[in-house]
């Protein structure tokens, strides 16, 4: 019994010392962990605040830069408009200048936020491959736009017929050509399809030829009708004498005699001449008793009893 007491008496100081050291270690580790966590939170807060300030500055710079791009583009276009550059090229050049300025603005904004230019360029290059594959059609339109600039099949203000639409060319952008139709619709035609398709430019030539098909009854005298038509053409000062107007009997139809009239005028007068001559022909034929034809069917009745 005495030996057990002596054993426990000698063991207790060692146990007490061990517990004391363990407690000190736990307390010390807990204090250090709290300190490290607080330092980490403070570091994150500082970085978040710094990033927030940079984003705000980048946003403000974007607003200012967007206004400056508008002013710079307007100034450049004033200078360009004083030159004799093709109107199509002016339209494309405006878009190119804006695109370059916006790319520069984007680079400056990334530097303000803290993204290095090298990293940004590598990101753009890697995205460019995927985006280029996805936008292959747009790249064709871009190439088509440059082909139109080089070949110049039309210019702004021309009236064209292409891709089953017709209208006046309003603008030529990098990817589309803007057409204003006769019924005031704005139509965007992709440059790729436009440059590789058939284009009819109705404004490129100074002179245009009108053609009328005038139909009369078989009972009418062709020479008289021709003389009346010649007089109508001669009285209209907008119709040119060179090239000389042409009048001829074109076709003998089932219910009418068709007479073709061809006459030249200046391109701006084309449609006014066409409609005015139609109106004059109608009035003059009625005045002189020239009858217009209409579909007729002659029915012959056979008396079978009489034949018998």
From TrEMBL:
Predominant location category: membrane
GO terms for cellular component: plasma membrane
TM spans (from-to): 44-69, 96-114
Domain Mechanosensitive ion channel MscS, residue spans: 139-203
Subcellular location: Cell membrane
Family membership noted in the UniProt record: Belongs to the MscS (TC 1.A.23) family.
Record protein name field: Small-conductance mechanosensitive channel
Gene name linked to the record: mscS
